[in-house]
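Run log // design_07
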């Protein structure tokens, strides 16, 4: 039995949007912390740190600006932007294989999302959070707000291609990393808010890989029967696990990190195309999906034995132009990384599209 583990369901970056709404100059604040996250996860490879831990790093500051569980739920429910076709895609896929959502997002947002797309929350792995249980004093709130104001004045890291150490960054950005190291791993850990950093465990990086392993164990399955769809640096370890286990890895409107690790790159404004890949994977297996992708065309899709109702809906949505679907190879990887990153900005907006 095949299984899918899926990430890209909405156009939102909920944590980015929460920071932008509640923190002064919050979009720059979040972008800075997110790039710092990329440096720690992909360049420095800080022990015990994983991609996606941005979501715990920003929490003391959200708390200092008055964010609560209820506020997160309320904001999320009013600002969800679903990927077009995602509800249909999930319904189709769930009709022929077990499906799970593995997301770095906070559970408050994911609960709202599940209600909108009729997806069972028990089939979700996400960042569990009870922000209300943490108490910080007025002086600490004041200091956190002061730090947030100072942080946005720092130079935002831009990771050069091939960077292996912090020394490969420009001097000014090296100073940014050092200052953020002091804030997060020295000053904040001495505060009451440091408890948040110690206790919240975002589902990114290795946690996504562990989620996939847990799904496979629960279903008494095999990694070779897993199709994993991701779009960011938080999916790198899960991509590696599934790929090495013989499963199928798909980047859906992914950034450079996702395309670098995936076997198929999809660029589409509608999510139903991933149901096409899942249907073929479930019926025929990985090798036939790769063959389908290598011959991607209307005529090939007409002849490949797709589930009739799915095929009908797909062609209704894509009657003018097929989504771009391409196998990632050493020869085209760099091109696809750039093209997918550009398409990502087109469908999700420049600010969110630039995040790791």
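design_07 sequence
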């Amino acid at each position: 039995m095949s299984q899918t583990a899926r990430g890209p369901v909405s156009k939102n970056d909920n944590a980015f949007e929460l920071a932008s709404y509640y923190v002064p100059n919050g979009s720059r604040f979040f972008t800075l912390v997110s790039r710092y996250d990329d440096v720690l996860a992909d360049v420095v490879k800080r022990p015990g740190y994983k991609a996606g831990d941005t979501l715990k790093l920003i929490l003391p500051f959200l708390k200092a600006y008055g964010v609560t569980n209820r506020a997160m739920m309320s904001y999320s429910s009013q600002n969800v932007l679903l990927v077009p076709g995602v509800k249909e895609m999930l319904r189709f896929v769930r009709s022929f294989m077990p499906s799970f959502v593995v997301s770095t997002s906070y559970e408050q947002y994911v609960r709202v999302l599940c209600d909108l797309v009729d997806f069972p929350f028990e089939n979700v792995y996400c960042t569990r959070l009870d922000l209300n249980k943490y108490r910080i004093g007025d002086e600490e709130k004041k200091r956190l707000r002061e730090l947030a104001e100072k942080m946005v004045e720092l130079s935002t890291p831009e990771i050069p291609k091939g960077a292996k150490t912090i020394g490969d960054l420009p001097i000014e950005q090296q100073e940014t990393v050092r200052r953020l190291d002091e804030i997060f791993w020295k000053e904040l850990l001495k505060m009451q808010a440091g408890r948040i950093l110690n206790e919240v465990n975002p589902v990114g990086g290795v946690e996504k890989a562990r989620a996939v392993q847990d799904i496979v164990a629960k279903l008494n399955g095999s990694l070779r029967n897993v199709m994993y769809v991701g779009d960011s640096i938080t999916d790198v370890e899960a991509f590696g696990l599934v790929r090495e286990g013989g499963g199928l890895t798909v980047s859906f409107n992914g950034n450079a990190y996702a395309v670098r690790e995936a076997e198929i790159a999809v660029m589409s404004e509608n999510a139903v195309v991933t149901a096409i890949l899942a249907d073929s994977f479930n019926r025929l297996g990985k090798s036939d999906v790769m063959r389908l992708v290598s011959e991607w065309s209307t005529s090939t899709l007409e002849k490949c034995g797709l589930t009739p109702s799915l095929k009908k809906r797909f062609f209704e949505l894509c009657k003018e132009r097929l989504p771009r679907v391409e196998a990632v190879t050493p020869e085209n990887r760099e091109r696809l990384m750039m093209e997918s990153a550009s398409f990502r900005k087109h469908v999700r907006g420049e600010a969110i599209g630039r995040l790791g």
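The mean pLDDT is 93.
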